[in-house]
Structures are given as C-alpha cells and as structure tokens.
Amino acid sequence: MSKLALFGGPKAIGDGQQLKSSWNQKSMEEGLCEYTGAKYAKCVSSGTAALASGLFAAGVGPGDEVLTVAYTWVATSGAILRNNAVPIFADIDPQTFTMDVEDARRKITPQTKAILPVDFYGHPAPIPELMALAEEHGIVVIEDACQAATAEINGVKLGSIAHLTAFSWSGKPIYAPEGGGAYLTNDRELFERGLLAGQHPTVIQGLATDPEVVKHASMGGTGDRMSPVGATAAIQQLLDADARTNARIRNCEYLTEKLADIPGITPPYVRSGYKHAYHYYTCLWAPDEYGVSRDRFCQALNAEGVYAIAYVMDANYRFAPESEPIQAGGPLHLRTMFQERNLYGKGCPFLCPHVKNPPVYREGDLPVSEEMARREFCLSQPDLSPPCDENDMQLVVDAIAKIIDNIDELKE
Fold it and tell me: Residue 219's pLDDT is what?
C-alpha cells in the first residue's frame, strides 16, 4: 500500500488528475477546455456571437460562400450574413436532421470559405466526414453546436472535433439565465483571430500573441462579451451537465420505446456512436396516413397539456412570457430575406459586386428539408429533463395515444 501523501507519499489524485468540482474554482473558459478537451475557449455574449467570431476567425468576408443548412434557427445564417458572406444551403439527412455530406460535396465551389454544419435538436452533425471533406478543399469547419453542448461523437465531446465549435447557454443543455455562449478550438490562430470579432481591445491585447492580431486590437469592442454573472451560472451548470443530459437521454429512450408502437409517429433516430443531447425530442408525424395535418395534430397535443411545436415552422415561444406563437416560414431558403436577396439594402450581401455567382433560393431546392418541415414536431428540453421522469414521459405517451384513438374527430 502506498505511503500517505501527508508523510511524503504520492497523491491519490496526482498531477493531471482532479475532481470535476475543481471547475467551480476556474473560469468558464478553463472549465470548458477541461470538459471538452479543447485547447482554447472564449466566452461571448451569445451563440450567434460565437458563430460570427468563428467565421471572422476563418477569414470569411464579402464575396465568400459558407456552406450550411436551411433547416436550422435563423441565427446560423445570421452569423454568416453578419460577416457579409453568402449562405449556400445543403439539404439534410432525413433521420438526423443534420447536413447531408454528399449534397454538401456537390455544392462546394471555389468561393466556398467554410462549412457550417448544425447539430440540430442536439444530435451531432457528421463532423468527422465534414472535416475530411473540408480538408480536401482546404477550408474550415465551424460547428454550430448551440443546441448540443454535452453531446459526443465516438466518445469525444463536441468542442474539440471541428476546427471551431460554437455553443450557446440560452435555454440550452448548459444553461445561464443571462444567456451567453462560447467558441472553442484547438487552433491558436483561430482562437486569437476570433477575438477581433467583438472582444474589448484590452482583452485582445491581453490574450493575443500574434503581432497581426495585436496590431488590430483597437477594432474590437462591439460588446460580444459574456457577463460575469452569466459565466458564474454557466460554470455551475457545467458541474452536473452530464448527469442532467444522461437523465434526459433515459427519459427520451423511454419515449422512443413507447412511441415506436404508435402508428403514424416516427421517433428520433440516433446514429451509432453519437450521443444525442436532446435539446428537443423530435418526431415525424404522418399527415397523409391520417388525413390530419401536423399543425392540427400539434394543436390537439397542446390542448391535452403537452407543449409541442413544429420548431422550424413555428419557433419556440415559451422561453419568454411576452412571446406569442409565430409562423416562422419553414426552412430558411423559403423566407422573405432569401427570396428577395436583400438584407442591407441594394441587394447586399447577396448581389454585391464581390459575389461572383449570386445565389438563387427556390422552393424545391432542398426537398428533404421541405418535407421534414411539413412533418416534424418537437417536445422541449424542460419537459424532458429532471425532475421529469418515466411517469411524466408516460403522460406524454398517453396523450399522443389518446389523439390517435380519436383521430377522426380532428378530421371533422
């Protein structure tokens, strides 16, 4: 038996080892690096700011194309547009709701500067395959993991796989009441260039070692900084993030087991080797099978006491008391801004002189995305997480079964 450390023996918890509770004594950035395995992390004001910082770090600017998906929250494309670049949309895989690698391959052009996949609803995008594709073309993968903190691919935490990963703390698996987010990377150059997108000049001066970044430090200061209060709340969430996610996974697996036996409902698919964080539990409804639209089904489910939304069409409205439901318009390529191709006026950035091949966004371009938007419905994270348990999940199953048993009433 080893000699006690008190009397000169080796520590039981030696160099390179520590209890997770030690994160509580560190900054959120340090805790994130230890949690994910990433070398560098910087907290920012939101997930959108994290994406914008990553795109700026990759050198994305006017005339550049960024390959992403239209099946996502608007902030994904908003970060691209904030950098005056043009979103080019790839279709999605119908099982995971994440980027279709082969469609992405077809849409890469000499103007493609970066690939921005989305870990939608908490299921990781095929990041390893997209990293290989990016390497073929010498471009960067910036992962929108805003809904997927705590998720994994082949046992590796998101945050250390893509060239750069963006997280959000606004109502997400790692939560901070004041919001916020972070970008993470293993690349020191990307980390430092990302600071220029919105950190205070004195912060840039203190962290940057690249003379070119230091030289431009005075261009910072747009306010993309996370509040200290928010960072303190987020680090507390980090301490038991896996425990909460694992409990949510158990609840979702129970739902999947029960809902698989109900005709007309297709539960979520989880790719082998992937850990789904279940920010949303997303099913597919079969409107043609029952002659009842997904929207009518969701209306009935809400009336039974189960909060359900068609996320891409409706958007979550429960996060703030003053919110009201809104028809968001479906996948991004069908929304007004992309149909008109005009954000800043005068057609910019879509039609500005830097753009060699101005994109045209048409209905029918993304058939899988458009079909999924007609069929998907989501249960939200608060109803999937502790203290909810299997008894609560069974109430959801019973409500869905009740609607199916009385489906003819909805037809009337």
Answer: 74
Strand order in the sheet with 308-309: 265-266, 280-285, 376-380, 308-309
The dihedral formed by the CA atoms of 385, 328, 120 and 382, expressed in degrees to the nearest 10: 0
> 292 with 230, same domain?
no
CA-based Rg of the chain, rounded to a whole angstrom? 22
Q: Report the distance separating Cα 125 and Cα 163, nearest Å.
A: 14
The ranges of the chain with pLDDT < 50 are: none
Distance CA 54, CA 193 (A): 8
What domain count does the chain have? 2
* Residue 221: per-residue pLDDT: 65
Domain boundary among 239, 273, 295: 239
Same domain, 266 and 334: yes
Residue 153 token pair:
């691919």
Angle, CA of 149, 151 and 155, to the nearest 5°: 135
Residues 224 and 263 in one domain: no
- Site of tokens 């005068």: 346
Exposed (0-12), middle (13-18) or buried (19+): which is 384, by Cβ within 10 Å? buried
Domain extent for 231: 23-239
What's the pLDDT at 130? 98
Residue 394 lies in a domain: yes
d(CA 372, CA 376): 6
- The torsion of the CA quartet 372, 280, 162, 197, rounded to 10 degrees, works out to 100
Collapse the DSSP code of 141 into the 3-class scheme (helix H, G, I; strand E, B; otherwise coil) and give the result.
strand
Predicted confidence at residue 2, as pLDDT, reads 74
CB 66 within 8 A of CB 112: yes
Q: Residue 42: phi, psi to the nearest 5?
A: -135, 125
Please tell me whether residues 248 and 278 are part of one structural domain: yes
Q: Residue 367, exposed/middle/buried by CB under 10 A (0-12, 13-18, 19+)?
A: exposed
